[in-house]
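README: folding subset

This subset contains proteins for which both the sequence and a predicted structure token string are available. Records are stored as plain text. Below is the entry for Aldo/keto reductase (281 residues), shown exactly as it appears on disk.
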Amino acid sequence: MSTDIASIALPGGERIAKLGQGTWEMGERASRRADEIAALREGVALGMTLIDTAEMYGDGATEELVGEALRGLRDEVFLVSKVYPHNASRRGVERACEASLARLGTDRIDLYLLHWRGGVPFEETVEGFEALVRAGKIRHWGVSNFDVDDMEELVALPGGAACAANQILYNVARRGPEFDLLPWSLARGMPVMAYSPVDHARLPKRSPLDDIAAGHGVSVWQVALAWVLRARGVCAIPKAARIEHVRENRAALDLKLGETDLAALDAYFKPPRGKRALEML
Ligand code: NAP
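--- output ---
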């Protein structure tokens, strides 16, 4: 399998892997640690070099695991972490970032995201992010769980247009962003990072995914992931703690769904006909 993986561009032109790896719920159980580290390292070897984590995950234990997993691989990956909204003040982001860097065992985060909108005015968070960029602690900043109205507000602020990405819940069972947020992002050249691309392993027990998977000789999870990856301007960060899942997910990038597959999915997982509020997990 090729490790040369499809990529998408950040607004400044830098390219990141279209398929990455999530880490939520990793690093929480000692008995699974070795498998989780092996899974992440295998994913990087297969080209899934976009790694997503957050200070929230495992109260910092996940960032520590990611740091351990990436030992010797740091320069090969594009590392994303997220700050809690309650830490997103001008000084708070600095402190939170320092703590994340220490846990990750690195001197820089490639993309630092506001995890969701909280009570701190955006201006302050943007100032804090920009100071971190100037200090070389982060290379880009962005947001997560922002709907179109939040994005409009953000990019209108001084410095707000530097936002490099929006990480949102998007998968075949949660298609709301197709109505407005995906077109808005595509028009601005801002990547959407799809989280929970296999719906946190909660895809319906029976659906057209079954027949499509059987037809292609793959799993329903691979069909669901290929469906997300078909979208322009979208990258995806499935979490897989099992090495066989990592390999299947990488293979899903090469799976091309046909017109009849897509039509069957549209008939069951209906595309939005109007505005749906952005969901979050
Ligand atoms: P997900 O990636 O949709 O699903 C993860 C689950 O699917 C795990 O149980 C995993 O099993 C299973 N899985 C993965 N690949 C599989 C395969 N090929 N076959 C069968 N099962 C498979 O859900 P997620 O973890 O919620 O989302 C992904 C990442 O997005 C997170 O880890 C996190 O980094 C990020 N995220 C961000 C936010 C936010 O607010 N910004 C919210 C949620 C998630 P195993 O682990 O056992 O392999």
